[in-house]
Amino acid sequence: MTRKQRRFTLVAAALAVLGLAVGLVLVALRDNIVFFYGPSELAEKAPKPGARLRIGGLVKEGSLRREPGQTVHFVVTDTKAEVAATYTGLLPDLFREGQGVVAEGTLGKDGVFHAESVLAKHDERYMPRDVADALKKQGLWQENPKPSSMAR
User: Fold this and answer.
1) Between β-strands 113-121 and 100-107, what pairing exists: parallel, antiparallel or unpaired?
2) What are the backbone angles phi and psi of residue 50, rounded to the nearest 5°?
3) Closest Cα to residue 35, out of 124, 102, 86, 108?
4) Which of 146, 139, 101 is closest to 125 using CA atoms?
5) Is the dihedral angle over the CA atoms 105, 151, 40, 62 positive or is it negative?
6) Which fold has domain 35-121?
7) Any residues with CB less than 8 A from the CB of 110 and at least 6 apart, and which?
8) Environment class of residue 40 by beta-carbon count within 10 Å: exposed (0-12), middle (13-18) or buried (19+)?
9) 3-class DSSP assignment, residue 36
10) What is the largest CA-CA distance in the chain?
11) Who's near 95: CB < 8 A, 6+ residues apart?
């Protein structure tokens, strides 16, 4: 075998091992990959029922309905489209109508999103109460501060 043939064999073997490693990583991560959709994107792309995904948007005003126990029904909206959702469990303290929410779960055949976890979001102007009280005492408190250009 010449030097050129040995080099070619070594490069081919290295590429084969690299391809196998990438394939194994993709197979292992297949169940852990979760796509994020807004209600409009969900309506456009229509993922197949049972697919694991995350949805995000605002909890629609007047849509929150609690059942006996810990089951809650609500609607997630981005003002263009809406997705009905249901969740059984304890909700975060910040969860309420008109507030941002991210839910992870599966889309049912009936078009209802069945959340397994729910995260409530607050806006970027959130400030802990202690800090706000200290600013009020110093006279530096602004009731409706303008969002800074650095926040995004």
Assistant:
1) antiparallel
2) 90, -10
3) 102
4) 146
5) positive
6) OB fold (Dihydrolipoamide Acetyltransferase, E2P) (2.40.50)
7) none
8) middle
9) strand
10) 84
11) 59, 101, 118, 120
User: Which tokens is 152 given?
Assistant: 């995004």
- Chain mean position to CA 6: 50
pTM of the complete model beyond 0.90: no
Q: How far, in Å, CA of 1 to CA of 43, rounded?
A: 60
Backbone angles phi, psi at 63, to 5 degrees: -100, -10
65-105 per-position pLDDT tens digit: 888 888 899 998 877 888 889 999 888 888 888 888 888 88
If one counts every other C-beta atom within 10 angstroms of the C-beta of residue 117, the result is: 12
Q: Where are the domains of the chain?
A: 1-33, 35-121
The whole-number average pLDDT for the span 100-111 is 85
Q: Between β-strands 65-66 and 52-59, what pairing exists: parallel, antiparallel or unpaired?
A: unpaired
- Identify the residue whose tokens are 């501060």: 145
Residue 14 has which token pair? 């290295």
Q: How far is CA 117 from CA 37, 51, 109, in A?
A: 15, 15, 19
Chain position carrying tokens 């209802």: 112
Task: Categorize the per-residue pLDDT at 31 as very low, low, confident or very high, splitting at 50, 70 and 90.
Answer: low
Query: Reduced to 3 states, what is the DSSP secondary structure of residue 53?
Result: strand
- The SS3 of residue 45 is helix
